Amino acid sequence: xxxxxxxxxxxxxxxxxxxxxxxxxxxxxxxxxxxxxxxxxxxxxxxxxxxxxxxxxxxxxxxxxxxxxxxxxxxxxxxxxxxxxxxxxxxxxxxxxxxxxxxxxxxxxxxxxxxxxxxxxxxxxxxxxxxxxxxxxxxxxxxxxxxxxxxxxxxxxxxxxxxxxxxxxxxxxxxxxxxxxxxxxxxxxxxxxxxxxxxxxxxxxxxxxxxxxxxxxxxxxxxxxxxxxxxxxxxxxxxxxxxxxxxxxxxxxxxxxxxxxxxxxxxxxxxxxxxxxxxxxxxxxxxxxxxxxxxxxxxxxxxxxxxxxxxxxxxxxxxxxxxxxxxxxxxxxxxxxxxxxxxxxxxxxxxxxxxxxxxxxxxxxxxxxxxxxxxxxxxxxxxxxxxxxxxxxxxxxxxxxxxxxxxxxxxxxxxxxxxxxxxxxxxxxxxxxxxxxxxxxxxxxxxxxxxxxxxxxxx
Length: 459
Prior knowledge:
about 0% strand; globular
């Protein structure tokens, strides 16, 4: 199969899967909005905390995708099985820790959100109690998804996400709004529905891993004899990714606070803008998943030049696709704002920002795909450096200076965030241009040294 066809095949499923994952939270927000502002506020509090916590604690899955992809590319399916089992076990342990610590800290929500009403805080606690309890299932599902994507299978995670979304919508209708004699429970009901979705998706993905010919396969499971070495190899790749996500979410929280300084109208317009941009972001992320999986596979095959070519194809395709989406969203900006608000001031403020949104898309696409390709190669320090420069050194000061100090408001904030994407793209492109061959060659040589002998076949 040609590199272009392989990128298109993997990216297609991954893009739809990312959109479905986003749809879970969008459905929550729409239905909570029908309950009233307090339930929507509870969803805002709980959703941001849940997203940040799970994204940081699941950073180890960067190592999962890279290790599974490399070992599959080398034809060492036994080693792929070991990497998958180690990752699933680690996900379960981390998930239990998140559940225990998260539930224990729910009593302190009022400290982080002093302006929230008691009803909103109570709803957020109800939501998070359910989703934190399901944290082991959520993290195991993310690990399983990364393992399957690393093996070149982006279709199975899509099927699991589709099944989970269908169930999620039905449960939301009953648990949030009430139906069939059940009384709706608002944000607490949304949490139960989301937790059930996590568990269902986890179960479907585990069954996929256990099927005949799957990464884990049927039959008894024994702890890998080389687990310690696999843990070290995975930790070497994933450790910078963990730090990267901590930095990213620190920058994201500061970015959120800056927008909060601009008032209710800016915050309302921001929700519409980021919802529109989410379509572009998830599309870029789908191409990024494809790039990471193929790069890892080519390194395992001992073909670093083909890995570089695959990354280049994925970047170009993502830039074209995402830029086209950004242009379409700009042309339909009035209709997009009408979906989210009837307030003329909010609509006008949001519409004024769409030109910046459209211009930022090629930089966002390039930075996302280049970062994912670097992670697939195990070069997570390069991705970390780009995120540090963009998120903390550029985004936060630029957004504050342009949006607040210079008085440009939300328009200035979006210029600052666009400079972030541009700076990340420049850093990663420079690394790829001057160091790409060396990094890919070193990754391939390191892998061959660690796996000089083929791993045992799958049972």
